[in-house]
Amino acid sequence: MLAGKAEIEALIPHAGAMCLLDELVAWDGERIRCLARSHRDRANPLRCGDELPGLCGIEYAAQAMALHGRLTVQAGTSSAGYLASVRELTCRVARLDDLEGDLLIQAERLMGDEARVVYAFSLSAGGPPLLEGRAAVVLQA
Q1: What kind and span of H or E run contains 75?
Q2: What is the arithmetic mean of pLDDT over 81-98?
Q3: What is the pLDDT of residues 45-88, one digit of tens each?
Q4: Domain containing residue 135
Q5: 3-class secondary structure for 76-112?
Q6: CATH classification at residue 16
Q7: Is there a contact between 103 and 110 (Cβ–Cβ < 8 Å)?
Q8: CB neighbours of 132 closer than 8 A, spacing ≥ 6?
């Protein structure tokens, strides 16, 4: 583990229960891998009633992208950004909270400049991807 929850919270604009990532496992200039256990937490702020919808995996991926942006200080910009679009999304599960294993969140920077970045992302839990797609992030200078 390269960083735990406290170190991650210090780098991204999410804190407390809203910081969904638990561990930074690996990263380089183009990719990041994180682990999360918060999908099983009954106090997860994204829960809807008694469950955590599968599409909430997009927020897990967005936080991994934010962490990657901060770690790489992309194009000299600030780490602030906004998820502008999600494309080619495939979600193979209705919910995340009933998964026993940790979530592995992976993101790969496909292209970008000082104003925007495009990532491919996936979430899995010990098997094939449960959720995958591409996301465009608009960076705030």
Answers
A1: none
A2: 95
A3: 999 999 999 999 999 999 999 999 999 875 444 557 889 999 99
A4: 3-139
A5: HCCCCEEEEEEEEEEECCCECCCCCCCEEEEEEEEEE
A6: 3.10.129.10
A7: no
A8: 88, 89, 90, 120, 121, 122, 123
